[in-house]
Design goal:
Layout lengths: L4 E2 L13 H14 L5 E5 L3 H11 L3 H8 L6 E5 L5 H10 L2 E4 L1 H6 L7 H6 L3 E4 L9 H16 L13 H16 L11 H7 L3 H4 L3
Parallel strand pairs: 1-2, 2-3, 3-4, 4-5
Helix pairs in contact: 7-8
Bound molecules: zinc ion.
The site of zinc ion (ZN) has 6 residues, from strand 3.
């Protein structure tokens, strides 16, 4: 498996703790090892983090990252809970993955990811738990859909015209991210639920493309 940069760049997961120069050096070093290596960074998880980043840089975390780093399909933006619609659309356009961790985001009271906006922009996403409290991908996917129903006040948020079965769409999308995470590896679609669950305890394990 290629090396990955785990981008918890400060104890509070805030970009204010990393300078553009330090981030650039980090990415340059990684690129020197493996130009295709995935890059993971925890970002925009909580409103306080957004406020800190605004105070530090004048920009929101995702906005700052997109403006200052070569975010592309190698990147996994873990949580990305508090993105604006414009940020969602920009992340989707870059081809990055939003690494969603519904149980942790619920546990910490982070907020709810704006899935409809992101899905409408054809944004890529992956699922994880970001902790050892839950290692059930089924539970994570269920919470992902149910949290959307609560905020949208409607059912079947993850359904689409092409894939009207919510459970199937959720599962196949999560499995597809897992497949992309391991180029040359066998498809997660052939794995048992237990196997997919055990390998997706963190978004880093299942979301990079
Ligand atoms: Zn996290």
């Amino acid at each position: 498996m290629p090396p990955a940069v785990c981008g918890s760049v400060s104890p509070r997961n805030s970009l204010r703790a990393v300078s553009p120069h330090a981030l650039s050096d980090l990415l340059e070093g990684l690129h020197g090892i493996d130009a295709a290596a995935p890059v993971h960074i925890h970002i925009a998880e909580q409103q306080a983090e957004v406020d800190d980043c605004l105070a530090w840089s004048g920009a929101r975390p995702v906005q700052w990252l997109l403006d200052n780093a070569p975010v592309d399909e190698r990147w996994c933006l873990v949580h990305a809970t508090t993105m604006t619609a414009a940020e969602s659309q920009r992340v989707a356009a870059r081809g990055a993955v939003a690494g969603l961790c519904p149980s942790t985001e619920a546990n910490l009271g982070d907020g709810v990811f704006d899935a409809p906006t992101y899905l409408a922009a054809n944004g890529r996403w992956g699922i994880g738990s970001d902790s050892h409290a839950s290692v059930s991908v089924v539970d994570e996917l269920r919470l992902l859909e149910y949290s959307q129903r609560l905020t949208q006040q409607r059912r079947n948020v993850f359904a689409s015209a092409a894939q009207p079965d919510v459970a199937q769409r959720l599962w196949l999308a999560a499995a597809r991210r897992r497949q992309h995470a391991r180029p040359g590896g066998r498809s997660a679609r052939s794995k048992s639920a237990a196997a997919l669950t055990s390998s997706c305890s963190t978004p880093a394990a299942c979301t990079p493309a």
